[in-house]
Amino acid sequence: MNDRGDLQILHIKGHVLAGPEDIRDELWVVDGRITYERPTGTSSRAARDIVTARGWVLPGMVDAHCHIGLDQQGPVDESTSEKQALTEREAGALLLRDAGSPSDTRWIDDREDLPRIIRAGRHIARTKRYIRNYAHEIEPGDLAAYVRREARRGDGWVKLVGDWIDRGEGDLASCWPRWALDEAIAAAHEEGARVTAHCFAEDSLRDLVEAGIDCIEHATGLTEETVPLFAERGVAIVPTLVNTATFPQLAEGGAKYPRWSEHMLRLHERRYETVRAAYDAGIPVYTGTDAGGSLAHGLVAAEVAELVTAGIPAAEAVSAATWGARRWLGRPGLEEGAPADLLVFDADPRGDVRVLGDPRHVVLRGRAVR
């Protein structure tokens, strides 16, 4: 396979993992789309017009929590956003859920060589309760109106900041009263959008779930009391374990707020136990890295490995980054007629998830980009 970008027919043989239990011998890519039927006329095509590759085939991976158009200081220019998207592509992440960005990245949709993005609009945070230059910073009475606006600007998601450090208390604390969450989440659902929230701590979770939230990012504050509630309501989590691994470094810099530092260390220490308890309870778990703030892009394979370290079976961790994540986000995988966004590996990633870190081929919209 090469990167000519002008090939009409691609033939992949070996093990096509169309689903967790759906393994096929081959697929074809014709005019950028997948088919399992041998295209008519291929026997008479010149060899140069049909490219054959072999290996284990998976749908393009999903980074369900990253930030294109954002760095530690806030919004970035288009050149930097392009580099971020290309880094994700090279790592095999071909579908990105942008979990909050102040930049307008709609221009990426016109680029055939960049991953597809599902946007959650801009973060919505309480005044002076989040990272500077990242979010709309508002008060509770305005929350529903801002949620409605971001729902109309996004791609079916809205992102709240559910908790952050309260400098008066010197620790993590909830950002929103329950009545404001009830109004805001109802408004998002009326607009046809789902709602997710950044949450590190324990205290914000019950109100968010009972108000009808659809997903929680990080979810390090899950406890024996809230795990059953999440499971009952079907609220998904995106643990971003590659990000929570940085909590000790954050705590080291928080000498001014010792309660906060100690809290972050406790959340870090039990992070794997928390994720495994969520999985065991039947809570949907998906891969996300939180890349684009302080973390580099291209870490989705590392996040899958972290899920395995937490105790999630390898096949389920792979699903959390491929078939399962795409189904959750309403995007196709390797179905007949779907856009050909796929990866080819030398071995079965379900046997060793480290394989995900080195795709032999990356095919985006039917074109080999690696």
Features:
370 residues; alpha/beta; seven-stranded mixed beta sheet; four-stranded parallel beta sheet; 26% strand; disordered N terminus
Explained architecture:
- This protein has 370 residues and is an alpha/beta fold.
- The chain has 12 helices and 20 strands.
- It has a 7-stranded mixed beta sheet with strand order 3-2-1-4-18-19-20, with no helix packed on it. The protein has a 4-stranded parallel beta sheet with strand order 12-15-16-17.
- A hairpin with a 2-residue loop joins strand 6 and strand 7.
- The longest helix is centred in the N-terminal third of the chain and has 13 residues, at 78-90.
Helix and strand arrangement:
Layout: E1 9-19, E2 22-30, E3 33-35, E4 50-59, E5 61-66, E6 70-71, E7 74-75, H1 78-90, E8 93-98, E9 116-119, E10 124-126, E11 136-138, H2 143-153, E12 157-161, E13 163-166, E14 171-174, H3 178-190, E15 194-199, H4 205-210, E16 215-218, H5 227-233, E17 236-238, H6 241-244, H7 247-252, H8 258-269, H9 271-280, H10 300-309, H11 314-321, H12 323-329, E18 342-345, E19 361-364, E20 367-368
- The pLDDT mean sits at 94
Secondary-structure-derived class: alpha/beta
Major sheet size, sense and barrel closure: 7 strands, mixed
Major beta sheet, strand line-up: 3-2-1-4-18-19-20
Q: Taking Cα atoms only, what radius of gyration do you get, to the nearest Å? A: 21 Å
Query: How many helical elements?
Result: 12
> What is the multimeric organization of the chains shown?
single chain
Q: How many extended strands?
A: 20
User: Which descriptor suits the 3D outline?
Assistant: globular
Strand percent estimate? 25-35%
| Helical content band | 25-40%
Low-confidence runs: 2-7
Q: Separation of termini? A: 9 Å
